[in-house]
């Protein structure tokens, strides 16, 4: 529930670890000020109230709604339930969220976005099993058009890193259940970047998701149109399996008699 606050602490701990500080070493002023602000803000948690009743009951239709997002520092997944009564009235509730800090090296934003989608797929699978909702309908959103394009491709056409995750996501979810959402309407953005406790108290996007989740008809999936630079990334993941492979191709080219 407090993932946007907790991730800030996770990122801070990663910074301490990467800087190599001993457990009792004094912090530099910049890091100390960052921690002091985070610590003072924690008092705002006492103002947060979370209704625990999700409205799951006989006679109501339940739908699971998930979002994922990544930033250079972390990636996140968040799940909501939408319960609809016979009269058409719907209630959306925050169910759970998960966050992970990004690796310190070697992670591009598209790959982090794919890790976020993988985290969402596994979270959805765990929740459906734990709550015995395996037959419940679901919809998933990402603001990465590159990831949505990968999820619609055969894993064998992609590089191993991408292929392994795409294959697992496709095993857990159906590609036609994945949709595009703008970053400004993506609640997982809150958990991938972090929010101060005082801001989270009344943060409607986090607690209830985008307003259109209340609509009777959820957004219909539409085709993903990639920009030229995004197409280059997708094509590059298909053509070359590793940096070592690039070097081999370049060496072979330079040795040709022209």
Write up this protein:
The N and C termini lie far apart (about 65 Å). The radius of gyration is 21 Å and the shape is globular. With about 260 residues, the chain is α/β, with parallel strands linked by helices. α3 (about 110-130) packs parallel to α5 (about 160-170). It has one domain (about 5-225): Nucleotidyltransferase, domain 5 (2-Layer Sandwich). It has 10 helices and 5 strands; from the N terminus they run ααβββαβααβααααα. It has a 5-stranded mixed sheet. β2 (about 75-85) and β3 (about 90-100) form a beta hairpin. The longest helix has 22 residues, at about 110-130. The chain has helices spanning about 5-20, 30-40, 110-130, 145-150, 160-170, 190-195, 195-200, 205-210, 230-240, 245-255; strands at about 60-70, 75-85, 90-100, 135-140, 180. About 45% of the residues lie in helices and about 15% in strands. The model is unreliable at about 250-258 (pLDDT under 50).
Integer count of domains = 1
Cα end-to-end separation? 63 Å
Residue share in β-strands: 15-25%
Q: Mind summarizing the main beta sheet?
A: 5 strands, mixed
